[in-house]
Amino acid sequence: MAAMSYKPNTPVCVEKKKPCWENLLNESDTRGEGKGWKSYKNEPDYTLSPLTAPPACREPNRKHMIQVVLSEHIIQNVEGFEQIFNVSLVVRHYQYQHWTFDNDIMLLKLDRPAILNTRVEPAALPDPRSPPMANGARCTVSGWGVTWLNSYSLSPVLRSVDVDIFSNCWYYYYFRVTDNMICAGSYFGGKDSCQGDSGGPLVCDGKFEGIVSWGIGCAYSYYPGVYTKVRNYLGWINWVVQNS
């Protein structure tokens, strides 16, 4: 069996045909080069992201090394619609467990509110009163990760794929999945998030339900992608926003 692994960092936003509410984060390394990875827009001045991310994004004292870019689509191109922000606050979830990826979520506060328009919109959080997602519910995941497992090249343009909810995910990841995770993929394989997609959004019926976190390989039959279950963190998100 393949080893459990997270789905590492990648980049950017605004898909031309369907909304994706995504953004690009840049981390500068010691050589001054940019490393891209994604998070998901939540509030006009906050973004959600995973803790399976570059070190600068996980450590509050290195927030000066992070930039957030909204309204990006093709990574290499300057299209004229981008909004670029510094990060003023990094809030890690206090119960994150790096050996299981449980509570794989954090909040980044932008240095100023985003300008909302037709290209930059907040993602709708789930209704806490709504029923659990049904097995087979159709969702969409998007990102700039690799398009096949052994590739070394990230996608230069935002891509998306429809995946189905696996309500019995514990059956496939015995003792590995917690109540803070949801799974989505295809029983037949071929549809999944992959390396470079960490932090990407899982949108179900217009709601931001999941954050790409980890999995075994990519797009394997009966090994769906594993996502942070956003609805379990609504209280924590609201508390951070109100008290920061």
From TrEMBL:
SMART domains: Tryp_SPc
TM region positions: none
Residue stretches making up the Peptidase S1 domain: 57-242
KW Iron (keyword) present: no
Subcellular location: Secreted, Extracellular space
Pfam families named in the record: Trypsin
First-tier enzyme category under EC: hydrolase
Record field: catalytic activity: Preferential cleavage: Arg-|-Xaa, Lys-|-Xaa
Recorded GO CC terms: extracellular space
Keywords: Disulfide bond, Hydrolase, Protease, Serine protease
InterPro entries registered for this protein in UniProt: Peptidase_S1_PA, Peptidase_S1_PA_chymotrypsin, Peptidase_S1A, Serine_Proteases_S1, Trypsin_dom, TRYPSIN_SER
EC code: 3.4.21.4
GO process terms (BP): proteolysis
GO molecular function ontology, one term from the record: serine-type endopeptidase activity
PANTHER family: SI:DKEY-33M11.8-RELATED (PTHR24264:SF58), TRYPSIN-RELATED (PTHR24264)
Record's protein name: trypsin
Species per Swiss-Prot/TrEMBL record: Scophthalmus maximus
